[in-house]
Amino acid sequence: MADADHAAPKRPTDLKRRSLVGLALAAGAILLLWLGGVALWALLTVGALVSLAEWAGLVHARRARLGIAMLILIVGMAYALPLMWGTDRATLALLLIAALVLALFPRFGSMSVGLGYIGTAAISILFLREQPNGFALALWTLAIVWATDIGAYFAGHRIGGAKLAPRISPNKTWAGLIGGMVAAGIVGFGIASVGRLPLGAYWLGAPLAVAAQLGDLFESGLKRRAGLKDSGTILPGHGGLLDRVDGVLPVAILVAALVANGSF
């Protein structure tokens, strides 16, 4: 989530709890990202399943449809299991084709979108980690989103001003978006320099911050439509897991697509 989603300002105790949980999540993600392999695969598989369950709650999907979508997601993630099959474009295609097939069934469209969106993002991170210098590349991808969230939060609170999308998320501002872009640009440039990433990584941080914000707004729209404040309650002070990865999903997919097509 970027700048504030709630009208009331966060109390110091709430902000402290959110910060501690956020730091713990980031530290755990970095550790498993560094380990890579089966450890990272397990984290992404569990995270994708939890996120898909929260998605089902947002679109009011029946349990049977969620069960089918989860089964397909597990198959797709199993195909991407490191040391067994490997992560490649065929794995991404498997999930996307499954999502398209599901879309042919009446009233299954929303779960199909969630399956393709969440599953493809999870496999995209695995794909990035398996590239040459994959740890730095995957960390760069996640850090851009984290920097966007932090920059947007503080710029939105300090500066305020015109609303970005008042009908979807009333408290997000243009100042927050710009602050997020600046923070993502700085962090992206720094990690690209230290990690010796391709030239595109030096300047893509700010543009990808816009994609992260769009992912945030997309999930906010789903919550508003469902009449829910958060996607879940699994994370103290943060809501659901989907609330924390809403910006990661589109950015991971975009970066993986650029790398897969040799455009990065």
Essential attributes:
2 domains; disordered N terminus; mainly alpha; globular; two-stranded antiparallel ribbon; 264 residues; 2 strands
Helix content: over 70%
**Structural class, please?**
mainly alpha
Task: Return the string of H and E elements.
Answer: HHHHHHEEHHHHH
DSSP strand count? 2
Write out the strand line-up for the largest beta sheet, numbering strands in chain order: 1-2
Task: Compute the number of structural domains.
Answer: 2
Q: What sort of overall outline do the alpha carbons produce when their principal axes are compared?
A: globular
List unreliable stretches of 5+ residues.
2-10
How many individual helices? 11
Radius of gyration: 18 Å
Percent in strands? under 5%
The main sheet comes to:
2 strands, antiparallel
Q: How far is it from the N-terminal to the C-terminal residue, by CA?
A: 26 Å
- The overall pLDDT average reads 86
Task: Describe the model.
By secondary structure, this protein is mainly α. The chain folds into two domains: 163 residues, no CATH class; 95 residues. A two-stranded antiparallel sheet has the order 1-2. The chain is globular, with a radius of gyration of 18 Å. The N terminus is likely disordered.
How do the helices and strands line up, and which of them pair or pack?
Elements: H1 12-35, H2 37-58, H3 63-79, H4 89-103, H5 109-129, H6 134-158, E1 163-165, E2 169-173, H7 174-195, H8 200-203, H9 205-226, H10 241-245, H11 248-260
Antiparallel strand pairs: 1-2
Helix pairs in contact: 1-2, 2-3, 2-5, 3-4, 3-5, 4-5, 5-6, 5-11, 6-7, 6-9, 6-11, 7-9, 9-11
